[in-house]
Amino acid sequence: MEMTDLKFMQGYIRMCNDGWLQGWHERNGGNLTYRMTAKEAEAARPFFGAPREWVEMDVQAKNLAGEFFVTTGSGKYLRNVVLSPAENIGIVEINAAGNGYRIVWGLENGAKPTSEFPTHFLNHSVRKTASGGTNRVIYHCHATNVIALTYLLPLTDRDFTRALWQSATECPVVFPAGVGVVPWMVPGGREIALATSKKMETYDAAVWAQHGLFVSGPDFDTAFGLAHTIEKSAEIYWKVLAGGQGKIRQTITDDDLRAIARDFGVTLNEAFLD
Ligand code: 13P
Ligand code: ZN
């Protein structure tokens, strides 16, 4: 038995590879974090090495104090995670103030957590609160068709949500709150972390203009499924636009969206309906 035999680690590694197989992780693109349960932290503890030094962050989340996260490494390729987990991913422990971490397993040979750890961290904080503690996964991918859409549509939550809802019938059921859109910003820092986590107070997905997608979820299946659904819908949207040379003969109407919501028992974000 070793760290990577633990069930949550198997799920984590599988998700990194699934994203790679989808073509969302060119080079070191994209990153994944998972907030471990207390039981999982106990099961993992025997495999921890000597903890490394504390690293202070310029973001803080008191509700994440003492938590353990699995994270991908900065500059690491998600396609390599399955081959050598301890070099490409690691586990970090958050300090009591919720503004620092130390590596307790993995990230071997001087690796560091993803450069997007500030965004992951603040997203975990707001989604933990918004979900009553059930949210555990934050995932960033360079989803090709979502990125393409950010060159075509106005960068508003409403425009993106409506386009995605209307591009596949299951979409309003999968993300009834809609998606948030963050304008183009320099990645990897506190500012984009704050802007993204603000969107995550309302939505469980946020689009980064000309960059990619952030999604959240209670488990790997749900988070990956959300990214997959959004990405597929984005692909349908631009294919329809391109195929019809900008003309759409018919679409899912607002009344149709309301009918889906009624029959599937979900509450759609009314701000996005006419
Ligand atoms: P990292 O290699 O630091 O995770 O960065 C990849 C990325 O997608 C930045 O947005
Ligand atoms: Zn990125």
UniProtKB/TrEMBL annotation:
Compartments where located: Cytoplasm
EC number in record: 4.1.2.19
GO annotation terms (biological process): pentose catabolic process; rhamnose catabolic process
GO cellular component: cytosol
Cofactor, free-text remark: Binds 1 zinc ion per subunit.
Annotated Zn(2+) binding sites: 140, 142, 211
Catalytic activity line of the entry: L-rhamnulose 1-phosphate = (S)-lactaldehyde + dihydroxyacetone phosphate
Keyword Plastid in record: no
Pfam families, per the entry: Aldolase_II
Enzyme class at the top of the EC tree: lyase
InterPro entries xref list: Aldolase_class_II_sugar_metab (IPR050197), Aldolase_II/adducin_N (IPR001303), Aldolase_II/adducin_N_sf (IPR036409), Rhamnulose-1-P_Aldolase (IPR013447)
Pathway: Carbohydrate degradation; L-rhamnose degradation; glycerone phosphate from L-rhamnose: step 3/3
Gene3D superfamilies assigned to the protein according to its UniProt record, in alphabetical order: Class II aldolase/adducin N-terminal domain (3.40.225.10)
Active-site annotation: 116
Class II aldolase/adducin N-terminal domain residues: 10-238
Keywords recorded for this protein, A-Z: Cytoplasm, Lyase, Metal-binding, Rhamnose metabolism, Zinc
GO molecular function, one term: metal ion binding
Similarity comment: Belongs to the aldolase class II family. RhaD subfamily.
PANTHER family the UniProt entry points to: FUCULOSE PHOSPHATE ALDOLASE, RHAMNULOSE-1-PHOSPHATE ALDOLASE
Function: Catalyzes the reversible cleavage of L-rhamnulose-1-phosphate to dihydroxyacetone phosphate (DHAP) and L-lactaldehyde.
Protein name: Rhamnulose-1-phosphate aldolase
Name of encoding gene: rhaD
